[in-house]
Amino acid sequence: MEFIRSQRGAAKLCYEGFTYTKKKETKSTMRWECSQRRSENCKGTATTDNPPTRVISSTDHVHVNDQFYVEALKVRQEITAAVISNGGQPHRILADKLVQHPVEVI
Fold first, then answer.
1. CA distance 91 to 79
2. Is residue 24 located within the same domain as residue 45?
3. Looking at the structure, do residues 14 and 50 belong to the same domain, yes or no?
4. How far, in Å, CA of 34 to CA of 44, rounded?
5. Tens of pLDDT, residues 13-71
6. Residue 21 forms part of a structural domain
7. Same domain membership, residue 16 and residue 40
8. Are 30 and 47 a contacting pair, CB within 8 Å?
9. Is 103 inside a domain boundary?
10. Which of 19, 24, 28, 76 is most buried by its number of CB atoms within 10 A?
11. What SS3 class is residue 90?
């Protein structure tokens, strides 16, 4: 279980090759829904404790997990952070970050 930021800055839960967006929060739990809910009509969910340190339960998805997609999201986050912090040349940052990953992630 880990977290990344979406392009709009919201937290995304990454768990077992799936990504989730936060749906509902209570004092003790957080409910997450599959990020592909609309595109795949997926009803997969996950419930974590609050603050999130572990996944309490999860439901099945209608699609297969995609660890390469999750890794690609992490790389995009790293590239964005590097551009913001370093300023640097975007083509150099892209080359440095992408060389470390398999073609499926790129």
1. 10
2. yes
3. yes
4. 5
5. 999 999 999 999 999 999 999 999 998 899 999 999 999 999 999 999 999 998 888 88
6. yes
7. yes
8. yes
9. no
10. 19
11. helix
- The answer for residues whose C-beta is within 8 angstroms of residue 88's C-beta and 6 or more apart is 82
Query: H/E element holding 94?
Result: helix 90-98
Question: For the chain, what is the domain count?
Answer: 2
Angle at 79 between CA 84 and CA 4, to 5 degrees: 95
Q: Is the pLDDT of residue 92 over 80?
A: no
The closest alpha carbon to 31, from 43, 39, 18, 20, belongs to: 20
Q: Which domain holds residue 49?
A: 2-58
- Which runs of consecutive H residues, i.e. helices, occur in the chain? 67-86, 90-98
| Residue 3 scores a pLDDT above 70 | yes
- Domain with residue 41: its CATH number is 2.20.25.240
